[in-house]
Design the sequence.
């Protein structure tokens, strides 16, 4: 079974702007989730790890932390009303166009790293 892990991390936040990269105990918040996902990948529990974001700052930090950011998410699926299904389908469509197919998707929320 081929599994894609997606960490959704958009720029916009009504409560805490750029909350996904805010410093928490000396690291950007998203680092904790990326670290767990990288461990899953190193243990062959997932096949690919991506961060789905609409933000260059989050993309650059995520790449430095070892995650893949193969695209920037379009603004039309990056708002408050966007459902998880929207960014999941967007990612799957991106990979399908490259003839890369996944059997399952897991979503790892950067705001719930534990």
Sequence:
């Amino acid at each position: 079974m081929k599994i894609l892990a997606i960490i959704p991390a958009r720029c916009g936040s009504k409560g805490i702007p750029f909350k996904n990269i805010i410093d928490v105990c000396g690291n950007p918040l998203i680092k904790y989730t990326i670290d767990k996902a990288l461990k899953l990948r190193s243990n062959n529990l997932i096949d690919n790890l991506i961060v789905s974001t609409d933000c260059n700052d989050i993309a650059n930090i995520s790449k430095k932390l070892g995650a893949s950011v193969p695209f920037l998410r379009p603004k039309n699926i990056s708002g408050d009303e966007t459902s998880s299904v929207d960014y999941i389908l967007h990612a799957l469509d991106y990979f399908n166009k490259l003839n890369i197919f996944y059997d399952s998707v897991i979503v790892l929320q950067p705001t719930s790293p534990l």
Summary: The helical segments are 29-42, 56-64, 84-97. The CA atoms of residues 30 and 110 lie 5 Å apart.
